[in-house]
Amino acid sequence: MALATAEQAQREDRQGIAAAVAELRARFGERCSVSHSVREHHGHTTTLLANQIPDAVVFAQSTEEVAEIVKICAAHRTPIIPFGAGTSLEGHINAPEGGVSVDLSQMNAVIKIFPEDLNCVVQPGITRMKLNEYLRDTGLFFPIDPGADASIGGMTATRASGTNAVRYGTMKDNVLALTAVMPDGSIVRTGSRAKKSSAGYDLTRLLIGSEGTLGIVTEITLRLQGIPEAISGGICPFPDVESACNAVIVTIQSGIPVARIELLDTLQVKACNAYSKLGLEEKPTLFLEFHGTKAGVAEQAEQFGEIAQEFGGGPFVWTDKAEDRSKLWQARHDAYWACLGLRPGSKSVTTDVCVPISRLAECVEATRADIDETGLIAPLIGHVGDGNFHVSILVDPEDEREIEAAHGFIERLNWRAIEMDGTCTGEHGVGQGKKKYLKREHGDALSVMWAIKQAIDPLNIMNPGKIIPM
Amino acid sequence: MALATAEQAQREDRQGIAAAVAELRARFGERCSVSHSVREHHGHTTTLLANQIPDAVVFAQSTEEVAEIVKICAAHRTPIIPFGAGTSLEGHINAPEGGVSVDLSQMNAVIKIFPEDLNCVVQPGITRMKLNEYLRDTGLFFPIDPGADASIGGMTATRASGTNAVRYGTMKDNVLALTAVMPDGSIVRTGSRAKKSSAGYDLTRLLIGSEGTLGIVTEITLRLQGIPEAISGGICPFPDVESACNAVIVTIQSGIPVARIELLDTLQVKACNAYSKLGLEEKPTLFLEFHGTKAGVAEQAEQFGEIAQEFGGGPFVWTDKAEDRSKLWQARHDAYWACLGLRPGSKSVTTDVCVPISRLAECVEATRADIDETGLIAPLIGHVGDGNFHVSILVDPEDEREIEAAHGFIERLNWRAIEMDGTCTGEHGVGQGKKKYLKREHGDALSVMWAIKQAIDPLNIMNPGKIIPM
Lengths: 470, 470
Description:
2 copies of one chain form a homodimer. Chain A is built from 17 helices and 18 strands.
């Protein structure tokens, strides 16, 4: 495109956005904000990606309102960026082309619980913790737990998972149906409350993980789980990462239905000891949880203990006391803060990859060696039952050389995972940060994704600049 | 379209198909058959749908060959109908517009097993029973078991499930990655061997259940399960269908990880008694199976027995002897033949629906009443842990009035399921038979499916006339 034409196109885009914002302000009044601080908050990223703020933020209160907003934006070819709790890690909520952030946090109701069916219908703005508080008296819970208190809508959009995924699956396994506003403003419902269906294309799974690039999810039907009769948890140190990973492999292979199995490397254990006063041996350590009947969890713990011993791990200390378990998992969930404590004043850059479990030890070892060679401070923690792990790189945000080193390391990590027949992200999503790895991971399948994007969002207004590097 | 133009278009289509077949015969020789009996076999349907035969059948032996076939067909706008084992139930393999049936049965290799990762890569033509025979010495098994010995490719295409789905999920949960030939002949790979990923659109799930309308699957990476340490099975009669369904609901709610829980209504029990010499009480009966440790399966059986008693069911007789269990499940899998035995000379028309489990008793009762009122002979059997059930209507294929009554009944059954927030097919797929229910089930989401179909297959050559009623 010639420069003059590009400039002209950009000017037209800006005029379109201005017209859309004016209409939205007229329609939504106070609920359409153009205040700089509100806009900045909505483009805020938890990483090193620059904050790219939207032109306006609209606080939606219903599916119909979202449809109205989308129609107004579509009429003016204005980008739309859905916003839940703002906890995403790869720049999903940034507005690289400006446009309108649609804040769904006020759509946070539990619409209905169906205890007999073990499912419920919620609005996207409710967070996972709020949902579980709401469910407390029903004997049911929603198991998916990314570290942050993310919104269910955001978790749907990024195909989130977390520590419980090894037993309960990810968002793709725990969403039955969706209501979504499509890029033309039409409202569609995908799936049903039936547990399974073979009736046509799986639009539910297509929208899960599409990061707001195909539509805005406004209602979600979630599978729920009965709170287990008994829960036990434990900790087991290992001489090295390899033996810990091998113990995980055999545990999974033996069909022990472990609910959580998390690896903390030595540096992460140090960090947690300092932050959460745990007093653990400073070795690669597995944190575990078992769900089942009282006899069942004891049996599982015993079986795991034997496997750990085979690989030189132990002592395996476990408990079914709720209080001790809570302390343990609080420490696990505080890992992010514990990391920052390793280097006060630093910023944590968190990345995740996922590999076949047989390649996990090799991938983790190579990654640890890479970190050491690069001279970065970067503890490693993982949902190892799924072959998924995170590295939190603690960087001085003012030190360009260090940031460059971090970027180089992340690039090598992602290539390593892809070459091991894994993926550049197990649960964080692509956003802006991981776009550059998709061609290597997906090859020609990327063209199929792009064809779908163009068919569903021909104006490219839904969260443009995310996922697909086209 | 004016008549002359329609006729001309059809003539051009026929000329295109003839040209494609000529090219395919030149390229594939003996492996491209135009024999009437081979073609008839490939359009054969297991239902009352008319046999619509393809113009030729090509027996493919590799992904690259499939790509060649697709390119030749695409160049001549010739319909392509993928064929696995021919066991589908809704006319999936029919050729309403003629064209080329691509028979994948010779692509039946297990490419690789990854025991540490609990997965394997197979070609689409292998059947589920052959795969499990192959796996026998590995301590692993593939759990998805539709009644017939379907091919893994066909099961992927229809999003199949079966009796084990209540514990192990459906094909959507058990396929990690696919290689597929797209409608332009390009070869793409979706997913990876990592257990989870958030890297872009879920093309794997989009292809699963797309019934060959978006591409031809040529390699499938499957999750496998460890063979449980102990398996126990049992039978439990109930006074009526409602109490049996209620026992199922409470069993699932209690988190008992039942591996199979199947309902046979009184007529089906009668049929199985006669066919498999079971000597069961002729009442609605649950067939169950538990997988776990020796202590675990005993505990599960005990818990279920208590629940059954609460609802007036029993005696619950269970065993962990492999021989007795096999007899039981052989009888379950022979249900189709047992049905035919109820009315020698009849043809069985089988249909399936799936509803939220809370609506199951109501749906089954209403369906039973409908059958009785219509005067049809139609036993009912179901994967009730998923809210999924089948009705096999035994019709005299020569009696038009009876066939009309069967069609009327099927239509009411499907509407009933959809109105209960269920689906018109839990596992058989849409094919030709269920197209007419999709608008009611999916509403405007059908337009999104159509947009995807058009984007990926703009020439509409991949299994045309299936799934989408456009």
